[in-house]
Amino acid sequence: MSHRSLYRRTRTPLAALATMSVGAALLVTAVDPASASTSPASSDASSHRPATGRKPTVVLVHGAWADASSWNGVITRLKDEGYPVVAPPNPLRGVRADAAYLADYLKTIKGPIVLAGHSYGGMVITNAARGNTHVKALVYIDAFIPAQGQSAGEIAASQPGSGVIVDDPTTVFDLVPFPGAPTGDADLYLKPRVVRSSFAQDLSVAQQNLITAAQRPLAASAVTEPSGEPAWKTIPSWALIGRQDDIIPAAAQEATAKVAHTTVKEINSSHLSLVSHPGAVADLVNTAAHAG
Questions:
Q1: Spatial separation of the C-alpha atoms in residues 174 and 286, rounded to whole Å
Q2: CB-CB neighbours of 125 under 10 Å
Q3: pTM (2 d.p.)
Q4: Domains (range + CATH), the chain
Q5: Which of 46, 141, 168, 181 is deepest in the core (most CB within 10 A)?
């Protein structure tokens, strides 16, 4: 498979997904810029007002197959430490569109910001923070840390071990049409067995069942959309990498973190360390807040 054939404009998003086989080491030449929990996220409207001057506002961005409630345990711990915290919705429509949405949201926050993203949320924060001088630190939690031109699918496929990079996407995703979708695009929902085996394998069966039922889909086209110029070029970054991550292999995360000069901490967790180990996530955010 040639690298160029994957990105011909005639290919549909689903066709591109189908050609990303496990272990494919892909490089990108395009330069055009552009998970889940069990209860409602806790944040308050006052977080949009200026902080007390002692702590930055922490903005938490969820990934695919999740919503803001995936940060609940982290939010509780950070607010106990005195941080203003917000966890805005991530539309999950595409890197450019989602980053634009978040960038506008960030403009409503006064004072310094620590911006954290989980999984696909890493693609979004990398683009949304560009040019925003209030963002003092980027924190990647089991997340994509893209260089310019890289897509989420490429990063996940760059090392063996991802449970969602397969020859036939229909074996791991339920594909659901949505209004106005471009030809070949669809919403991706994780099949229950993938939630259990690759997405949330260190959570309880009850939690896995709730995640499966409440997941928010990602547009297939978002997986192959290239990232723009990365904010980590000018903003310090930290990453928490789960050694049992079967969505974005740890080796793939480590490789991108090295390129971005990201400070890395590893943890023995699945892709959902923000749910299974919220204390470790909050600690890393706190570290970045003090350093940034």
A1: 37
A2: 34
A3: 0.84
A4: 1-292 (3.40.50.1820)
A5: 141
